[in-house]
Amino acid sequence: MTTTIEPVRIITYIDGYPATVPADGGDVIYQALIPGYAEDQERENIGRTDNYLVPILRRIGATRLLDAGCGVGATVQRLVDHGFDAHGFDLMEQTPIWAAAGRPRDRFVVTDPLKLELPFADASFDCVFSFGVLEHVGTQDGHATRRADYHEIRTQWARELFRVTRPGGHLLLGGPNRRFPVDTAHALDAAAGPVERWLSAKVGVSIHRVWGDYFLWSYGDVRRYLADLPFTLEGLTVDGLANYSRIPWPFGALARGYVRHLPKRLLATGFNPWVMALVRKDA
């Protein structure tokens, strides 16, 4: 079975890819790509797909997949190569990269950065997964400057992913944990205080507060965004996903050892450097 895109939700086509936003991007256009982005994503995502994601998908029996915030599309392409029926969506800045790489135009969709409306029927996918994306949803620039209504935007985003997940299927939502004080993947929140900035400059990675508003998110936020919906949440290890290459030696090795040996009972808490929430959609 191949998942189909519902044309009724498509507004236009951008570089040949179906889009739920106008060709001019509507009210907000993010230009968040940095030099080398496509090359890094292509290289890193293939390894992460093979070594981390595919074993999880095999374990939960998922074959129809949606990559929420698929970037350059390398993960979707790799999953298709593995025999999965995989699709992806992202913002319009990705379409030139998709086109240059020859990504299939029936597997990628351009979406709105502020209100997610997917062109898929209810219960279309066995698993919808997203790594390193939710922390940028509801920001003004695609990075770490939060809009005042960022929680509302994230709630709508998460619930739309839930809508297209079949009963008994899963969401897999991953990103640096707001409740863990070290973030090796991003700069600080735009509203970070002077102590956070001083500590981060000294250490060479982001050291942030674990209370109050922040652009990162937590397991508690996932539960908040999906409140009143039927789901069960399990925290997973990120061993094999994050390589901590940005951390100065020998701290990278220590971080890998910490993640590898973190007890299962602590995976869905602030002790896990990353949120990796496997959310089962209950019937």
Largest sheet composition: 7 strands, mixed
DSSP strand content:
15-25%
| Uncertain ranges | none
Order of helices and strands: EEHEHEHEEHEEHEHEHE
Q: What is the average per-residue confidence, as pLDDT, rounded to a whole number?
A: 91
* Strand-pairing-aware structural class: alpha/beta
The neighbouring-strand order within the major sheet is: 5-4-3-6-7-11-10
What does it look like?
With 283 residues, this protein is of the alpha/beta class. It is built from seven helices and eleven strands. It has helices at 37-60, 74-81, 95-101, 150-163, 194-203, 219-225, 251-260, and strands at residues 12-14, 17-19, 64-68, 85-90, 108-110, 125-131, 165-176, 182-183, 206-207, 231-235, 274-281. The protein has a seven-stranded mixed β-sheet, sandwiched between helices. α1 packs across α2 (74-81). The protein is globular and about 50 Å long.
